[in-house]
């Protein structure tokens, strides 16, 4: 069993908006070196253990594809400091930055910038934020040592993960509300869509 609130609270979340562009930022510390995290984030074999089955050529000019999900192009790649890719479309950019910290730990920063999300204000962060929360959780579980039979695809639909997703949606709801970029009506509509996707059957 995972401590859901511990993992939710381990992440710092921010959201901002400039015109039609929404930026989502996340930060979390990991008890692993930047080199260890880099391998976990870019080696398809390791990605399949904690995130999702992935194929591709992880170098500048290469591309990647998540099984039955998003893909993109590698725009920047500087191991073990970070990378920048398109994610799911030409107007969606994902950047990961790894910063060495004390005692062989690493501070990970994730930024996802999207232009033209079909939701007013920064409410679109509720469409992608919970998914990245799940990814950062998976990485934390991987660093701590996953059991041999762990499958991230089936784990994504487990009751435990759905409870985690519910708390993630609520966390992002607060972050977007505090940003002041979205009306309450539009925000609640985005939250309902997000909850239906990430935690079906749960009411706000």
Automatic annotation (TrEMBL):
Q: So what family is this one in?
A: Belongs to the AHA1 family.
Residues covered by the Activator of Hsp90 ATPase homologue 1/2-like C-terminal domain: 32-122
- Listed Gene3D superfamilies: 3.30.530.20
This protein's superkingdom?
A: Bacteria
What does the record list as coiled-coil region(s)?
A: none
Name listed for the protein in its UniProt record? SRPBCC family protein
